[in-house]
Structures
1.
Amino acid sequence: MLPENFDRESYIAGLREKHARILPPDMVFSVEDGWLPLIGESLGEIEWALDRHGWIAKASVRQIKEKLGDLRIYVRPRRESASFPKALGNELSDIRSRFTKKSVETCEICGDHGQLDTFGGYYQTLCGKHAEQRRVWIAGGREGDVFHD
Ligand SMILES: [Zn+2]
């Protein structure tokens, strides 16, 4: 669950500052608020792995997004032709799969426990309350705001 006074813009500003070494300044956070803390944790682990393997200056995050209901964070070598050494590649893929698994158990809207499901053909991981709001919104012809308190 997100803290009561959670503020998306300042949380993202904090991530940009803390992880400036691996986040390009124009990085877009294409997910709802409920997943931002997972992204924060994941970036910490990614940065730590790159640092230990001597790759911190040679790699960066390319994309942060939701796809088919789960969280995707893509990390690549800065040089297109380069590739990660095997040990680092394995570590990054372990981080990725652990956080993918966490994301499909975390409501993308509010951070409560959630479940991956399909809503009108669109995959999303939502808690019971937000899943219900989305179903009502779809049944009502998708008018107005889908999520509300
Ligand atoms: Zn929720």
Note: The first helix runs from residue 8 to 18.
2.
Amino acid sequence: MAREIFEKQLPLFTENDASEPPIVNVASVPQRSVFRYPGGKTWFVPYLRRWLRSLPVPPVEFIEPFAGSGIVALTAAFEKLAQRVTLVEIDPQIAAVWHTLLSQDAYWLAQRIVRFEMTAKSVEAALASSPSSTRERAFQTILQNRVNRGGILAAGAGRVKTGEKGKGLASRWYPQTLARRILAIATIKERVHFIEGDGVEILEQNSARADAVFFIDPPYTAGGKRAGRRLYTYADVDHEALFRTVACLTGDFLMTYDNSENARLLAEAHAFLLKPMAMKNTHHAQMTELLISRKLDWLDYG
Ligand SMILES: C[S@@+](CC[C@H](N)C(=O)[O-])C[C@H]1O[C@@H](n2cnc3c(N)ncnc32)[C@H](O)[C@@H]1O
């Protein structure tokens, strides 16, 4: 709790050139997801607010076809920036968590986490077992996400070793905080819809809608980049086909990509606008990611 109060007092932005979008202080953004997620878009949250509030009317539906931790869609739902949100995720492990969070089993999951006695032995036993239900699989996924280095669920990821303050495996295991987030998500579940499936198909199905907006954050594998492959079990996306689908969307959209030559070329081929955004990654290193859209005037800080 003390930590949360402290976080709320931090300034939202770190200062930089006044004409540029400021660098977001991620510690100031309310953390609503149960995941610590590689490639998570917490840094985007202040821009999400600015973008959606710039629209003439609040969207009926906010669709996030590559959901991962869902921090962006969850924020839209909590802050009523859209009437409802839809998250899509293809990875069955992550999907098990979303199915459970949005069902009656959310309470079971919160209790399971709070009652779990964490030792090196209990962690390995829980992770080695074959889950017999969706909710058990959800618990196993959250545990794995918390004890694996960088929150990585893909094969080959190692465990956290010394962790925060030398606390080892338990250094990212905050049972009470996780339970609170789970119960908070349960209070807005009427406005949150989850689909286990292919995000590109969902984009195609919704392409004629003018009342929906889309936040599209695929694994960064354009041009054969390897980073996304190490981070996600499902990393293969046909980026050219994705851009063609996005070009047919009637509703407003935003894509995020790594600041790579390939992503730039794809954006330019469709006459989309792009803006490199300075951000700090989890290691506090400054880097840039691209925002891509048809309209970025709401980003003007000049
Ligand atoms: C960059 S991450 C999204 C991170 C998310 N924006 C966040 O803030 O946590 C990309 C996600 O897309 C998922 N994914 C990969 N291919 C997909 C597909 N065809 N349909 C839906 N999800 C997919 C991956 O499993 C991964 O969770």
Note: Residues 37, 39-41, 65-66, 68-69, 71-72, 88-91, 94, 198-200, 217-219, 232, 234, 237 surround S-adenosylmethionine (CB under 6 Å).
